[in-house]
Amino acid sequence: MSSFLRRIARLTLLLWALGTIAATVWTLSHHPLAQPFINRTDAQIRTALTRAMAREVTPEWLIPRLETAITADDPDRVEMLLDLSREHDAPLPEDLRARAEALLAAHDGWLATGRECGACMIDIAHCPRLSLIGACALPFELSPAGDVNELRRQGVTWWEGGDVDEVSTALASLGLAATVVAIPSMGASVPVKAGATALRLARRADALSPRLTADLARAARESGGATRVGEIAADATRIAVKAGPAQTLDILRHADDAQDLRRLARLSEAAGPETGRALEVLGKARSLRLLHRVSDLLALTIGLILSLCAQLGALAAAMLKLMLRRLAR
């Protein structure tokens, strides 16, 4: 009886090994490494971001960053960190919370807001709060007057023999052209106008990386470059629409080049207003990695290969044991 059971066991193990080999060959024949990662849906991205941020946001993470933001007199960052504390139940020392709320109160008065808004309208590079860009600088810059003013500024620079900023000139020209054709196109060019304005403001605020600036400059010089500049501007528009105008400049600072900008736009489409917080908590590289996941086929293939290696290892161990027994006899 025991001999019969051993035969059944051996046959079962043999069939299992053959099945594992066949399944491994089948999965490898479908080239799982050709597309090891697949795009997550918006809902999956939001879930992954929420889980990752919940693990990261702790009092130990929050307190030093809030101290730094208060010292730097950065109300936007202070407000964001307080929101993270509330959303993730990360308690803060009462004195630190009181100092943070006092800083926000100092920037919320009508006199302080009016003074800061005036600074934004004069020079966006000196705007003390990102949230004021949308309320103070953006309305004027989105109008044709904003593009005309930029072209005037570059024209004066050229007349005086200075270096014309070809990126700002191209973006202002694109924005003005989009405004002109807005009515004939029934508003189809408005998103391009919004993106071009966002990039132009980021350029003035020195918020564009050298590589992204180089991509825009190269596109502006090339034949038919307006189309390429428009594509880059469209990605900036996606960020502004989903994450909000106040966050756009801060998110644009993370874009190393045009391809990076497209990935950030995809992140903004999924995360929406939480985009800035995700980048603050997780960093750009980690946030963008959450846009993709390992494909099911690759995960299955890896599992089958590991199972096959384990079976081959067990077989080798059994054969070695048998050989040692015979030598011992």
TrEMBL record:
It comes from Paenirhodobacter populi. The chain crosses the membrane at residues 297-320. This is Uncharacterized protein. Keywords: Membrane, Transmembrane, Transmembrane helix.
